[in-house]
Write a structure and sequence with these properties.
Elements: H1 2-27, H2 31-46, H3 49-52, H4 54-75, H5 85-108, H6 112-134, H7 141-162, H8 166-194, H9 198-215, E1 218-223, E2 228-233, E3 236-242, E4 264-272, E5 282-285, H10 290-301, E6 316-318, E7 332-333, H11 336-345, E8 351-355
Parallel strand pairs: 1-8, 6-7
Antiparallel strand pairs: 1-2, 2-3, 4-5, 4-8, 5-6
Amino acid sequence: MKIKLWFFVTLAIMVLAGILIQRFRNYKTPEMEVMRASKMLAEAQLVKSLKFAKHAFQEASDNYNAAMSEWDKQNDRFILLRDYTKVSQLAKKSSHNSEIAIASSKKFINNTEDLLQVRINKIGGKIQRFADSFGNFPMDKKHREEYNKSKLLYAESLIAFKNKNYLSCKLKLDSVEIVVNDYFIFYQKKLNNYFEAYPQWNHMVNQTIVWSKKNKSYAIVVDKYARQLSIYKDGTRLQTLAIEIGANWIGDKRQQGDQSTPEGLYKIVQKKQNGQTKYHKALLLDYPNEHDKQRFSLNKMNGLLKQDANIGNLIEIHGNGGKGSDWTDGCIALKNSDMDELFKICTLGTKVTIVGSTKLINDLPNNIR
């Protein structure tokens, strides 16, 4: 009798485990499928599929919209009940429909001028999207020079097209497309890697807002990606100000001179009036704190930093901002008028939380899907 009971209990556990495993498999979010479907749909639009392959394009569009609707539906469900299988299926159908639409359209677009015009629009759009999404990214000198050259080459291709020098136009576009596509992949990967820290950022921001509400105090949240400083009072956001940050802002601050703005939980330890700072007014933060010092020592121990490296200090929120680009050595700069407002409400001990972003990567306004 005991053996039978043990057998049925074991069987029930195995069945339940199987259900949970299947559920978690189905819970895998379909970002890649949806991103590809969106990319293929955009490409179908560029090759005039709405005109030359209307039926296939409409099916691609309908399946993509259905996939997004199903995704929203699943996100509204309890986490263990979410099943993204249908989202993936619809996204894959959309991609397939787009492929058919693209192939059909290209058969119709057989005129050299039309083909070049399509490529001009496509590459020009990609250059603009790159600027929107990665224009503020720190680029090394070689990348910056090559990218600027590709933009000049693109302008030359437009002139060649206008003068009906189609061979020259095509060769220039070929060169531009290689650079832009390579850099899209490189910086999208860099962005994705950076946003792996989002759960930690989100936790710090929530912790700060809760602290502000509990203590009925002001608190500051800095969003590096958005270039925004938000002022909270009693857990409610009162105001958001534009900022400028370290020129090499991607990632956390590692050492003195890296021109990176640190990320973490800090507090104001000194208020500097006019005459005490060359930056109009300044709020000195307690960087490096104990967490920064521990990470710095660990990086040295692991050989990630030279032994003579210094951790740095004097990270401030200060004025003299409004330059329109990232220029500080790691500080946070505001326009003098905004700095005056912030200076009035902040006291010694005011919490300042600095994160890479307060939004998920998929929620960014310029995110490439």
